[in-house]
């Protein structure tokens, strides 16, 4: 939109700047991500424009300065000019920077206003930041009612340098957010615990997710593909381990995905009133533990000394079930967040798992916790 305000020579310079180093531009390691939305393209062009303005000023100021130092040096007998308290000079050096600033602010403001216009969205999705994963709820449009949690799948071995790093190291998740191409998608952000931020550079989107507040942003992806981003607000120990992956599909493929996802969700629906057998609870709990608890308490249940207590041999895990249920529902101290967003079946199964895993097997009271216990404790 601000392109009209650019002169022909500036356009040529902008084109030159983006193509002069094709190897680097192709690699994108030194540049912004390739824009996939109109907003991202505007941001990209603004960045290029500002860069050119800064470079022109840089060369003009230093050019004049070095030329003056060289050409008017004392050894050549130069005499200093006297324009002390010159009204003309003062007016010029007030008006010129003013015009430069206005010239940069006008196109930038247009883009910022467009970024904030979340009206008339085709699809609305709520993104909730958790320590350390993202939850997605499709609120409006096709796919309404779909809801899932998106967790990092990069194996810990790669993080610990025990295995070679994969292609999408730390930017791969189990459940990707899926949206249709060329539709306006409104993202509502909020958080469960601390401030996170939802960012996809290729969309030109970065929005804080703040507990107790609702913020929104939007994008309209123009190209089918997979786009990756990360939490962009330092949010604790695993800040680097909560990536964001968005898959943009054609409308037909999106419709297919919606049907599949809805089927998958109804199949997974747990009946919280069902009485589970101990082996079923333990099997389910092991999965819940691996996805939610192992990052801190470790797969071995040994925790990390000084930071995260061991669950193997722990008194709470061996004690009455009510105490452990209370910690899972309400959290404890700063280190243990509340896990009330998990379902009753998930909480019951993970508690049952910890009570039978490692050396805890056969120790303590209440080895089995049923979903109904959690339902009762929530009241
Ligand atoms: Cu975060």
Commentary on this structure:
The chain has 379 residues and is α+β, with helices and mostly antiparallel strands. Helix content is 41%, strand content 16%. The chain folds into three domains: 114 residues, Helix Hairpins (Orthogonal Bundle); 146 residues, Cupredoxins -  blue copper proteins (Immunoglobulin-like, Sandwich); 101 residues, Cytochrome c-like domain (Cytochrome Bc1 Complex, Chain D, domain 2, Orthogonal Bundle), CATH 1.10.760. The protein is built from twelve helices and ten strands. The strands form three sheets. The protein has a five-stranded mixed sheet with strand order 3-2-1-5-8, with no helix packed on it. A three-stranded mixed sheet has the order 4-10-9. It has a two-stranded antiparallel sheet with strand order 6-7. Strand 1 and strand 2 form a beta hairpin. Helix 11 crosses helix 12. The two termini are 55 Å apart. The structure holds copper (II) ion. The site of copper (II) ion has 7 residues, from loops.
Secondary-structure element order, as H and E? HHHHEEEHEEEEEEEHHHHHHH
Strand content: 15-25%
CATH architecture of the largest domain: Sandwich
Bound molecules: copper (II) ion
| Number of E strands | 10
What spatial order of strands do you see in the largest sheet?
3-2-1-5-8
The H-level CATH homologous superfamily of the largest domain, spelled out, is Cupredoxins -  blue copper proteins
Q: Mean pLDDT, rounded to whole units?
A: 88
Helix content: 40-55%
Morphology call: elongated
Largest sheet: 5 strands, mixed
| End-to-end distance | 55 Å
Q: Structural class of the helix and strand makeup?
A: alpha+beta
Count the helices. How many? 12
Number of domains: 3
Looking at the structure, the CATH topology of the largest domain is: Immunoglobulin-like
The CATH class of the largest domain is Mainly Beta
Low-confidence stretches: 1-26
The Rg value, from CA coordinates, equals 28 Å
């Amino acid at each position: 939109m601000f392109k009209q305000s650019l002169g022909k020579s500036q356009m040529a310079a902008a084109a030159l700047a983006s193509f002069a180093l094709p190897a680097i531009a192709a690699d994108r390691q030194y540049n912004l991500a390739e824009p996939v939305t109109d907003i991202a393209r505007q941001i990209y062009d603004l960045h290029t424009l500002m860069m050119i303005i800064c470079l022109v000023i840089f060369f003009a100021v230093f050019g004049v300065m070095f030329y003056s130092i060289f050409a008017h040096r004392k050894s050549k007998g130069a005499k200093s000019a006297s324009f002390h308290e010159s009204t003309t000079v003062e007016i010029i050096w007030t008006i010129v920077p003013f015009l430069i600033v206005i010239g940069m602010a006008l196109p930038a403001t247009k883009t910022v206003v467009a970024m904030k216009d979340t009206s008339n969205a085709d699809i609305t999705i709520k993104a909730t930041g958790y320590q350390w994963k993202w939850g997605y709820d499709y609120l409006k449009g096709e796919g309404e009612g779909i809801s899932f949690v998106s967790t990092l799948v990069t194996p810990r071995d790669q993080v610990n340098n025990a295995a070679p790093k994969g292609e999408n190291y730390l930017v791969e998740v189990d459940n990707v957010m899926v949206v249709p191409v060329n539709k306006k998608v409104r993202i509502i952000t909020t958080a469960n615990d601390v401030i996170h931020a939802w960012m996809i550079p290729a969309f030109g989107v970065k929005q804080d997710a703040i507990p107790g507040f609702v913020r929104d942003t939007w994008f309209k992806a123009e190209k089918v593909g997979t786009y990756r981003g990360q939490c962009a607000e330092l949010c604790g120990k695993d800040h680097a381990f909560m990536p964001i992956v968005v898959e943009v599909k054609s409308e037909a493929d999106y419709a297919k995905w919606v049907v599949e996802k809805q089927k998958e969700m109804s199949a997974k629906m747990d009946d919280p009133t069902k009485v589970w057998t101990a082996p079923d609870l333990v099997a389910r709990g092991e999965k819940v533990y691996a996805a939610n608890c192992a990052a801190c308490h470790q797969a071995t249940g040994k925790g990390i000394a000084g930071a995260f207590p061991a669950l193997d041999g722990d008194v709470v895990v061996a004690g009455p079930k009510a105490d452990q249920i209370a910690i899972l529902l309400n959290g404890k101290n700063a280190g243990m967040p509340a896990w009330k967003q998990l379902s009753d079946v998930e909480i019951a199964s993970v508690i049952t798992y910890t009570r039978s895993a490692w050396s805890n097997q056969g120790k303590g009271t209440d080895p089995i916790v049923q979903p109904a216990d959690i339902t009762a404790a929530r009241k």
